């Protein structure tokens, strides 16, 4: 049985929504009546396909290209969302990457930083921007961060940056809730 929920009139931004889990989340919100901001970094065809799917269920989608690891791009992303959809009601921080599978001694500092930027900095920038807007509006909202079983289960060799980023995101989420 599929859970039913109604987001008619709500405005939801989903990062990393052009494929996979993010696309599924975006499509579910669209089917539930939300105006959905589909953020993507490079997969424009996937983002357009997600938007078409949302529109077939009667929803409305807004395409929003941006690299969430870039704080300037995030501010522009939220401004574009406001212009196209209105004030944000919910943010789903889904964008991320798995990164290279390498032993720590074989990782470059750039590989480490790139993965942490995508999986930890991006959600921070987006959550802070969404929270500022939600607080200023005075109506609250929801911020959802997508982590992974690897936040706890560090059982795959060569995945230290990924595991670290997802564990950090779990604890950031807990701190944000406070």
Molecular structure report:
By secondary structure, the chain is α/β, with parallel strands linked by helices. It has one domain: NAD(P)-binding Rossmann-like Domain (Rossmann fold, 3-Layer(aba) Sandwich), CATH 3.40.50. It is built from five helices and five strands. Strands 3-2-1-4-5 form a five-stranded parallel β-sheet, sandwiched between helices. α4 runs parallel beside α5. The chain is globular. The model has no long low-confidence stretch (mean pLDDT 93).
Briefly say what this structure is.
The protein has helices spanning 20-31, 44-56, 71-85, 109-137, 160-177; strands at residues 11-14, 35-40, 60-65, 90-93, 142-145.
Helix content: 40-55%
Question: How many distinct helices?
Answer: 5
- CATH-defined topology: Rossmann fold
CATH homology superfamily name: NAD(P)-binding Rossmann-like Domain
Strands ordered across the widest β-sheet: 3-2-1-4-5
The CATH architecture category equals 3-Layer(aba) Sandwich
**Average pLDDT, to the nearest integer?**
93
- Low-confidence runs: none
Task: Say how many strands there are.
Answer: 5
Give the tally of structural domains: 1
Largest sheet: 5 strands, parallel
Overall 3D form? globular
H/E series, N to C?
A: EHEHEHEHEH
């Amino acid at each position: 049985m599929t859970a039913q929920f109604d987001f008619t009139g709500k405005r939801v931004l989903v990062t990393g929504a052009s494929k996979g889990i993010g696309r599924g989340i975006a499509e579910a919100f669209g089917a539930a009546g939300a105006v959905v901001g589909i953020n993507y970094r490079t997969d424009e065809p996937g983002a357009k396909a997600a938007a078409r799917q949302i529109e077939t269920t009667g929803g409305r989608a807004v395409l929003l290209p941006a690299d969430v690891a870039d704080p300037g791009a995030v501010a522009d992303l939220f401004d574009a969302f406001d212009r196209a959809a209105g004030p944000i009601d919910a943010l789903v921080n889904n964008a991320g990457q798995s990164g290279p599978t390498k032993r720590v001694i074989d990782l470059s500092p750039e590989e480490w930083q790139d993965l942490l930027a995508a999986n930890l900095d991006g959600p921070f920038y987006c959550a802070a921007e969404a929270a500022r807007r939600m607080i200023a509006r005075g109506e609250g909202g929801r911020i959802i961060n997508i982590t992974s079983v690897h936040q706890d289960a560090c059982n795959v060799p060569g995945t230290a940056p990924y595991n670290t980023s997802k564990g950090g995101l779990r604890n950031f989420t807990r701190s944000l809730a406070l």
